[in-house]
Amino acid sequence: MDILSHTFSGLAVGATLMPFSKQGLKSKLAILLLSGFAGFLPDVDAISYWSGFDSTFGEWFNLDSSGVKVYHDKRWFSHHGLFHSLLMAFILCGVIFLVSNLFRHKQIKQLNWKQESILYISVLFAFNTHLLEDMITPEFVWGGVAYLFPSEDYWGGTGEIWWWNNYDLFLIIFLTFTINIFALIICRVVRLKWKWFGVGVFCVGVFFFFFQLKTRPIFFQYKGFSGHHAIWETNERLSKEVQKEILGGDVYEFMEKLDNEIPFWF
Ligand SMILES: [Zn+2]
Fold first, then answer.
1. What pTM was estimated for this model as a whole?
2. By residue range, what is the domain housing residue 23?
3. Does the residue 175 lie in any domain?
4. In this structure, is residue 266 part of a structural domain?
C-alpha cells in the first residue's frame, strides 16, 4: 500500500487511543505523532529502490548487488524484510523508551507504566496496521511481509488490493482520522470525556475498509518477474477503473488530480 495511507492509518490509531491517556497535551500529541511515524516507518526499507542508493549506501557498505536487486531480494534490509516485522515494532518501542527516558524531567522520578503504556500500545498497533495493509497486496517477489522475522516465512501477499490507487481505502482512513481529531477538539472545548466515541469511529472505519476490500470486483494477484510488466500495466489500469466505478466521476477526478500532484506513488 502507499505511504500516505500507511501514515494516516498510524495517525488514525493515535487519534483513537490518545484520549485514553490521562497525561498532558504534550504526551497526547506524542502518542499521535509517534503513531503516525510508526505507520510510516516500515517503508524506509524502500530506500534501496532510490536512484542514489548505489553511490551512497551501496558504496559505504560495499554491497555486492545493486539497490534495485536488494529491493526485490529477501535480505534482511530488502523491502518487506526486517523493517516489515513485529520485531521492528518492538525495536521502535525500545528506541522511543530510551530516548524519552533520556529527556525525562528530573522531577518525575518514577515511571507511570499504566499511563506510559498507551503510547507503546498505540505505536505497536499503528506499526502492525501498516504490516496488515501490506499483506493484502500482491505476492510479486516477496509473497507478503517477513512478519515473524528472523523466521524466513513471509505472511500475506493475498493480492486483494493493488499496490496503490486505493483511493476508497485512503478516504476511509483519512475520514476516520479527521472525525476523531475533530471529536477530540470538540470534547476538549465542551469539557466532555467521551473516549469510546473514537473507538466506535475507528471500528466503523475498519468495517468499511474490509467491506471495500472484500467487494473488489478484481483480484490483483501476480507472482514473480515473468510477464511482470504486462501484468503490472493491466493491473494499474484496472485498479483505476475500479476506483472510478466505486467513487464516481467527480470524486475520482479529484483524487486522481491529487495523486498526480503528489511526488510519490499514491
Ligand atoms: Zn510497507
1. 0.93
2. 3-261
3. yes
4. no
How far apart are the CA of 83 and the centre of ligand 1, in A?
Answer: 8
Q: What span, in angstroms and rounded, lies between the C-alpha atoms of 136 and 161? A: 6
Distance from residue 211's CA to the centre of ligand 1 (Å): 21
Per residue in 185-216, pLDDT (tens digit) is 998 888 877 789 999 999 999 999 999 999 99
Decide if 124 is inside a domain.
yes
DSSP string, 210-266: HHHHHT-SS----BSSTTHHHHHHHHHHHHHHHHHHHH-HHHHHHHHHHHHHSSS--
Number of structural domains, the chain?
A: 1
2 alpha carbon to ligand 1 midpoint, in Å? 8
C-alpha 43 to ligand 1 mean position (Å): 5
Find the 157 Cα to ligand 1 centroid distance in Å: 12
Q: Which residues are registered as beta bridge partners of 81?
A: none
Residue 26: inside a domain: yes
